[in-house]
Design goal:
The complex is a heterodimer of chains A (436) and B (320). Chain A has 436 residues and is mainly α. Chain A has three domains: 2-285, ABC transporter involved in vitamin B12 uptake, BtuC (Orthogonal Bundle); 293-361, Winged helix-like DNA-binding domain superfamily/Winged helix DNA-binding domain (Arc Repressor Mutant, subunit A, Orthogonal Bundle); 365-417, Iron dependent repressor, metal binding and dimerisation domain (Diphtheria Toxin Repressor, domain 2). Helix content of chain A is 74%, strand content 2%. Chain A is built from 18 helices and three strands. A three-stranded antiparallel beta sheet of chain A has the order 1-3-2. The longest helix of chain A has 29 residues, at 227-255. Chain B is mainly alpha-helical and 320 residues long. Chain B has one domain (9-312): ABC transporter involved in vitamin B12 uptake, BtuC, CATH 1.10.3470.10. Chain B is built from 13 helices and no strands. Chain B is globular, with a radius of gyration of 21 Å. The chains are: A mainly alpha (436), B mainly alpha (320). At the A-B interface, helix 2, helix 3, helix 4, helix 5 and helix 10 of A face helix 3, helix 5, helix 6, helix 11 and helix 13 of B.
Chain lengths: 436, 320
């Protein structure tokens, strides 16, 4: 905990926190445009730029500040975007292939330039190399201010232009009809993306930058439904993972110094922490997570089964008593599952099981059974009379819909069905005044 | 002593031609570094561009990009399983194991995210490869006790290629050529019309996995020579370039092989030339990628204006 306040570790931890907030915010925007892989390509495109910046720095030798590196990286990232567009439009190439080519080409160019820089100035070559996997450990308070300002600018821009961005992302037709300049917004997004990438590479590294754009967005998408909330959650996840990851990398690098000299690169650690969040979110997020979806489908399935049980008791016994064995014989499910459902139904007060193997419905159970059958038969009438489905085919659909129809839908159905008293198979509909 | 020391561009090509001819008829001495580089680049180029043709035409090159990241996890498996101490020690068996692990893991994880978890396709691909690459880099760094491996994975280290690398790349090239030669027809159908392929009973899933596994095998074999990202360039650039000028699958395949040969020789000779004449040590694999990429970009620009020019002169009909 103390490393968050120590002056040597404060820089890296807060610096990476700020940098990754920036990446996460613009990551959400490209995520919703379904073009996250553009982020991957643009981050790789910065590499030759950084190497070129290394040349400039080496040439002027201390006369220019390392901000030149960032400037060159930014320009090359924008250049990468234009190259991408050029290939897609002029070469009529599929976006995936264009992305892949641009990515590989810029890295190749970077490697070529880097080999020359290595010969010219090994010092700057080493510094440039550290941008591949990030070098959060050497961040200082000055960096916090620099990156803090850039991050604030990006976030501020998104906040001020929130409406236009939101409309342009979610409804392009509407956006252009109310006068939002789609091309302008698109260009602004790419501009933001490039800035965020340049801000982030010092911390996460060129190679893994795209992970920082994607992972927080996935978490945010799993837990929220509006753009504002998504951006907030993504920023939170991005920032926290960066701070945690840097902390972990820092801790291990220092503690291993006595023995083997292995320093963990911070970029991969940060990405792993962020990916861990998104794996958790993918499994356990409320309403969209896998576990929740499975739970919902299992409970729905069980509810259908127990409603079917009530229904068959109603059919066998009506208001009276019938043998449990006969009821169970009508159902093909596993015996233990049926026993369990019977036990639960009697505990919840829908049915009464007596000691002699007989079973009967309670007053509530009877009402419920009638309601289900009513839904079933109303639906059948509706299908036959209004949709012209053959009476032979409606039973299966009604078997499913009887568990789903809500009171509002029942009202709607009644307005169609009117005063029919019998279903297409000549069975009376409960509650419609037909004779049982 | 390297016989290429001090030669210029054409001298290098000439000498190499002579020495390789002698070598293949059994009269030459052992291969020297420059010749190894040409052969490794050429064979890696063949392997990559043959597979790349199908990947490019199926528009799934971003999956190849994923693979080029995730092969590191495969390599980690080999390190754990065979107990190798450095990447040079990986043999054919290890290569296959690593390729299967990387290929299957990547496809399964990505498909799982898309199908079961309902995450959008681009984000699923991105999450899988960045997370696996991060994990791979960390594990390789820790297990091999080598903190330069991350940089080497990107740069490649072509000056250090050995005959071991050559044999790995050779096996891959032979394997992939055989695969494509034997299954040419189903692969062709599969590439252009997957639904039809399914309809006539081609096991499309099996072929998809085989292509993924072969691609990761090729990526691992060329890992030390050119690095994973430059491998990606070998995959996409030649087919894309050939695609500009022809519509025939066979022509794309053979054109890609030819361009691999040309660029392998030119980049090695040019890098030697720069070293001998200007004393500039340039990365050979970087040269390879930059040259072939530049030719492709030139092709895009040249093709459009060239077609216009030909239409204007009446060489081509106007609707082309």
């Amino acid at each position: 905990m103390s490393m968050f306040f120590d002056s040597a570790t404060r820089g890296p931890i807060f610096g990476s926190f700020l940098m990754c907030i920036c990446a996460a915010v613009s990551g959400v925007l490209v995520f919703l445009r379904k073009r996250t892989l553009v982020g991957e390509t643009l981050s790789h495109a910065t590499y030759p730029g950084i190497v070129l910046g290394g040349f400039v720095c080496a040439f002027f030798d201390g006369l220019v500040s390392p901000v030149v590196l960032l400037l060159c990286a930014f320009l090359f990232s924008l250049g990468g975007y234009y190259l991408l567009r050029l290939i897609e439009e002029k070469g009529k190439v599929d976006p995936d292939n264009a992305l892949c080519f641009t990515l590989a080409f810029s890295l190749g160019l970077g490697v070529l330039l880097a080999s020359q820089l290595q010969a010219e100035s090994p010092l700057w070559a080493r510094r440039v190399q550290s941008y591949l996997y990030g070098q959060a450990v050497t961040l200082t308070d000055t960096h916090i201010y620099l990156y803090g300002i850039l991050t604030a600018a990006v976030v501020l821009f998104v906040v001020i232009r929130f409406r236009e961005i939101e409309v342009a992302i979610f409804d392009r037709v509407f956006a252009s009809s109310v006068g939002v300049k789609l091309k302008g917004v698109e260009a602004a997004l790419m501009f933001l993306l490039s800035i965020s990438i340049v801000v982030g590479i010092r911390c996460v590294g060129v190679i893994l930058m795209s992970g920082m754009l994607i992972a927080p967005s996935i978490v945010a998408r799993q837990v929220s439904r509006s753009l504002g909330k998504m951006i907030f959650f993504a920023a939170l996840v991005g920032g926290v993972s960066a701070a945690l990851g840097t902390g972990i990398a820092f801790y291990y690098s220092t503690s291993l110094e006595s023995g083997a000299k292995i320093s963990l690169p911070p970029g991969p650690v940060i990405i792993l922490v962020a990916s861990l969040w998104s794996v958790l979110a993918v499994f356990f997020a409320p309403s969209r997570g896998l576990v929740f979806r499975l739970y919902r489908s299992v409970t729905f399935h069980l509810r259908c089964q127990s409603e079917n049980l009530i229904k068959s008791i109603w059919k066998k016994a009506g208001n009276g008593v019938t043998r449990l064995k006969d009821v169970l014989a009508c159902h093909s499910q596993q015996k233990w599952l049926l026993r369990l459902l019977i036990w639960k139904l009697s505990r919840d007060g829908w049915i009464i099981v007596d000691g002699l193997g007989g079973v009967s419905l309670t007053r509530d159970g009877f009402a419920k059974a009638e309601h289900i059958v009513r839904m079933h038969r109303l639906w059948e009438v509706y299908l036959v009379n209004h949709l012209g489905v053959s009476a032979k085919k409606v039973h299966r659909s009604a078997e499913e819909i009887e568990h789903i129809l809500s009171p509002e839908l029942e009202k709607e159905l009644l307005s169609f069905v009117g005063n029919s008293t019998h279903d297409p198979h000549e069975s009376p509909i409960p509650g419609q005044g037909g004779v049982l | 002593m390297n016989p290429y020391f001090g030669t210029d561009f054409f001298g290098c090509i000439g000498l190499m031609f002579k020495r390789l001819c002698l070598f293949f008829i059994g009269l030459g001495g052992p291969l020297c570094s420059d010749e190894l580089q040409v052969l490794v680049l050429f064979l890696a180029g063949i392997t990559a561009s043959l597979l790349g043709t199908f990947l490019v035409l199926k528009k799934t090159t971003m999956l190849a990009n994923s693979l080029s990241h995730t092969v590191l996890l495969g390599i980690v498996t080999v390190v754990l399983f065979f107990g190798v101490q450095s990447i040079d020690e990986i043999q054919l068996g290890g290569l296959l194991l690593a390729a299967v692990v990387a290929g299957v893991l990547t496809s399964v994880a990505t498909e799982f995210l898309i199908r079961v978890m309902r995450i959008q396709r681009d984000a699923s691909i991105g999450l899988v490869f960045s997370a696996f690459f991060a994990l791979g880099i960390l594990l390789v760094t820790l297990f091999l006790r080598n903190s330069h491996i991350g940089v080497e994975a990107i740069m490649g280290n072509i000056d250090a290629v050995t005959t071991g690398d050559l044999s790995l790349v050779f096996y891959c090239a032979v394997g992939v050529s055989l695969f494509i030669g034997v299954f040419y027809r189903p692969l062709k159908v599969l590439t252009f019309d997957e639904l039809f392929a399914k309809g006539i009973g081609i096991p499309t899933g099996v072929f998809r996995y085989l292509i993924m596994i072969l691609t990761s095998a090729a990526a691992i074999a060329s890992f030390r020579a050119v690095g994973v990202f430059l491998f990606l360039s070998l995959v996409v650039t030649p087919p894309l370039t050939m695609r500009l000028f022809t519509h025939s699958l066979k022509k794309i395949l053979f054109g890609s092989i030819l361009s691999s040969l040309v660029f392998a020789v030119v980049s090695v000779a040019l890098s030697r030339h720069m070293l001998s004449v200007y004393m500039i040590p340039l990365s050979t694999s970087g040269l390879f990628v930059t040259l072939s990429g530049a030719v492709y970009l030139g092709g895009i620009l040249f093709r459009n204006s060239g077609l216009k020019w030909m239409v204007k002169r009446g060489i081509l009909p106007a609707h082309e």
